[in-house]
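User: Second chain of the day. Same drill as before.
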Amino acid sequence: MQLANKIKNRIANKPVGRNLKWLRPLKWVFAAFLIFALSKIGVEYKHKQTIQNLIIKIDGADSQNGLLKEDVLAQIEESFGFDLTGSKIQLLDLENIEKVVEQYDYVKSTDVYIDAENNIHVDILQRTPLVRVFDKSGAHYYMDDAGFKIEADGDIRARVLVVNGIIGPYERDAEGYLLGGLHDVFLLASKINADPFMKSLIEQVYVKNNYEMVLFPKIGKEHIQFGRAEDIEVKFKRLKNFYEGGIRYKGWNKYKEINLRYKDQVITKESA
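Assistant: Same format as last time:
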């Protein structure tokens, strides 16, 4: 009887946890399996849902100088052959939608995703056109604020500085340096765009065969002999001072030429 009581007491006092240690790994396995199963069910349920709306967001350029949502929507629908709204989510390849949108040179990057309400979002970051170039071969295109070439198709409505003349084709060397006079064009265009006074004044630049440039203002008959793309800020300052002085008092049509090519001078020719 005493022996039976000792065995009973030993069993009663023995920690229960020691007998259940082998169950702990099974708990984690079961939890992982449950999470996987629920996730799979959720994905399958989501795939069977339909797209409610197609939401296009375009950032990176103003409304006058960029893509229109209607253009992007038309491109997507034309590529897929059907309206994405109302389509099953499982039928859509989001990566393929990104590729369709990024066919535009104008698009810098695209992010496509579906939200909790089954709306498909197409978020576009577009390039900012800086200048429109007409080269000596007759080709024309835009360059953005990083010097990237953007084909001048009908989807672009950018009102930017126009540059034409003796300009070679769009080319870069191994280091990415723009060739054929384009480096000077890009440099001057960037400086004009960054200066509020010059941006409001100049609408066209002509490049001569020695890479010297002639600027044409939006108002007045004069043309501005700018020379090479050197000492740009200094020339801008001299030109501003001249406009605030000479033209302010003599009128916009008084001069036919303003020459900034010579150091510390502004040489003018008056209209006949």
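The chain has a mean pLDDT of 80.

User: Great, on to the next one.
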